């Protein structure tokens, strides 16, 4: 009998029959509060009526056009619409299907635009599972092991928060930021010469790496070094974009200017769509034919993205992520205060997580996993992350209400 391959082990036993808003309904007849949002994808909730209507209408009008052959209206409209939310000057867009593909597109573009080979990434970063994206990923070994050699020209520099959150050195944020930038300078002096370095790629909040936010001083430090050496600063906003952190882009918290921005996940509420944005000057340096793909910028996905952006604006979802994120965080902090096994509560907006630790302060993936399973019993779906899998994250859809946050917190408290 055919079956799904063994390595695709499910984090929960739930088989979803249908989704509605923040809920999934299982074939077991139970209703679950989905605080995974399909790994941060269903920004407007499951099957938002406006997203459904836009997709249904588009399916009946034009499913596929392929932008290098014929242009279609949903893509043209999406390009225009994204102009309202992208940082000034990042006017030139390219679309693909997944986060990994967009990461690869950004990497290819950075190499072509600068004529330089090397990419600097941050320790703990996650950029995807295609071979090049996995080469840029250091959130854990499982994404990189067993199919090498990986792409060369990748250099890793510290990400400050991963040091102080884990309290390994007992340093504070300022000291770790100074350390991380000092290590980057050292890397640029001794390992990859700046004149060989095309890009520094970083997530505003490490996602799969453990939900650790960057800080302004660190990102400004990266910007300053990028400017000094003609390196491009690439922000991977695949998980942090489209309102997830309580601002439209994760980097809006830190006032840093990217050269290339990567988006996916929440952009189309579950339809596969990703993209990169850069200035005309940078994008013009991509060689014709080097970027593209059969399905990228699919018409139905673009229509869903347009509806998603309308819902995000009309329903004030960025503000809701900030407001409900603060409520969720405060509830999580209350639970953590009574729970020695939770060593840290962190994140931004509705991108929040709890780090589970042993009495000795070591990562405790077993307890994290037990809490995740117990939460399922309580009707709450959660995911783990982090290099050791000891971080349990809560990423509800951005439409989540105050009552649903409280319901989630009751389930969380019971599970813990
Ligand atoms: N970049 C970041 C920051 C991500 O969180 C992810 C996925 O979790 C990716 C890239 C890869 O995206 P995808 O799984 O759509 O290829």
Summary?
Its cofactor is pyridoxal 5'-phosphate. This protein is an alpha/beta fold and 416 residues long.
Structure description:
This protein has 416 residues and is an alpha/beta fold. It has 2 domains: 16-48 and 316-415, Aspartate Aminotransferase, domain 1 (Alpha-Beta Complex); 52-314, Aspartate Aminotransferase, domain 2 (3-Layer(aba) Sandwich), CATH 3.40.640.10. Helices cover 36% and strands 18% of the residues. It contains 13 helices and 17 strands. A 7-stranded mixed beta sheet has the order 4-12-11-10-7-5-6, with helices on both faces. It has a 4-stranded mixed beta sheet with strand order 1-2-3-15. It has a 4-stranded antiparallel beta sheet with strand order 13-14-17-16, with helices on one face. The protein is globular, with a radius of gyration of 21 Å. The mean pLDDT is 95. The structure holds pyridoxal-5'-phosphate. The site of pyridoxal-5'-phosphate has 15 residues, from helix 4. Its cofactor is pyridoxal 5'-phosphate. This is Aminotransferase class III-fold pyridoxal phosphate-dependent enzyme. Keywords: Aminotransferase, Pyridoxal phosphate, Transferase.
